[in-house]
Structures are given as structure tokens and as C-alpha cells.
Specification:
Layout: H1 5-14, H2 21-32, E1 43-48, H3 49-53, H4 59-72, E2 78-83, E3 98-100, E4 111-115, E5 120-123, H5 126-142, H6 146-158
Parallel strand pairs: 1-2
Antiparallel strand pairs: 3-4, 4-5
Helix pairs in contact: 1-2, 4-6
Length: about 160
């Protein structure tokens, strides 16, 4: 939800998904439009520092990606935190996930989304979701605060020059 076009394109090429790259890039950019609507949802993103230091697409792509993260973190509906590499092992290392939580849980129960190489998987079982909620809380607790994260992003950006 917070990736630039060039970053997404580089990720898809690296994943060897060479079919429909432009369609996939366009779809991701279209999903991002949800974040700038008047009724935009709240997004709380936690990014591992290694994703920010790995030179995906080259230095220019990484600078653009980090500038984008800094810019979107200024929006009221977006909270961004960075988990420093110095934290060591943590529960988000071996899997990325999206915890979708809705304002009216009686109508829309929480859902966990897992992206796979070829598709996506939605977990709707209460017991499965119960495993991800404390994991997300733990990741928020060990990550830098939002302001510290922006400062850290500025520092990381200088390494991509």
C-alpha cells in the first residue's frame, strides 16, 4: 500500500513474475488511491529496516521509495513505524501480513491477508486471527515511534546515494 511504481516494478522483476508486470503495478497504484479519499481508512504500517536498506531497483528507486514513505507518513490516516535491524529476531521476520480491522466488527469481522507468490490468502477464522493480533501489537511495541521512524528514514536515505 505504500510502494512507489518503480519499487513495485523492481520487486516484481526480482520475484521472476515477468507476466503482467504493468497490470500488477497499476493494480497496486489503484489500491493506494484508497488512502487519499475523503473517507480514507486508517493504515498502520510497520516496516523492517532491512526492506529499506536493500537496494531494490537501485539507489534512485530507493531514494524515491523512502521519500514516498516520509511523505505519506505525514497523512493523518497513516502511521508508519520502522523496526530497527538491531532489534534482532522478531515475529514479523518470516512473514508479512495485513490485519484488516473494521469499525463495526458485528458486520465485518477482522481478516488477515497473506500475500503469496501467485495469489493472496484471507484468514477469517477467529482462532487464526487471534494469533496475528498479538503479533501486530508486539511489532508496534518494538518498532521506533512514528517521529523516530521518519528521522531514521531520512538517515537511511543517505545510504542510497
Amino acid at each position: 500500500m505504500l510502494q512507489t511504481e518503480s519499487y513495485v516494478r523492481a520487486l516484481l522483476r526480482a520475484s521472476l513474475v515477468v507476466r503482467d508486470i504493468e497490470r500488477r503495478v497499476a493494480a497496486r497504484m489503484e489500491r493506494q488511491a484508497l488512502l487519499i479519499r475523503d473517507d480514507a481508512p486508517q493504515l498502520w504500517a510497520i516496516v523492517d529496516e532491512t526492506a529499506l536498506t536493500r537496494p531494490v531497483g537501485g539507489p534512485a528507486t530507493m531514494r524515491q521509495q523512502i521519500d514516498h514513505l516520509i511523505e505519506v507518513s505525514e497523512r493523518e490516516n497513516i502511521t508508519l513505524q520502522v523496526i530497527r535491524t538491531s532489534i534482532g529476531a522478531h515475529p514479523g521476520m518470516d512473514r508479512s501480513f495485513v490485519l484488516l480491522d473494521f469499525p463495526n466488527p458485528e458486520v465485518f469481522a477482522p481478516v488477515v491477508y497473506l500475500e503469496t507468490a501467485t495469489d493472496g490468502l484471507y484468514l477469517e477464522n477467529t482462532e487464526e486471527i487471534a494469533r496475528y493480533t498479538p503479533m501486530f501489537d508486539h511489532l508496534r511495541a518494538i518498532a521506533l515511534g512514528p517521529d523516530e521512524s521518519v528521522s531514521h528514514l531520512e538517515m537511511i536515505k543517505t545510504t542510497h546515494e
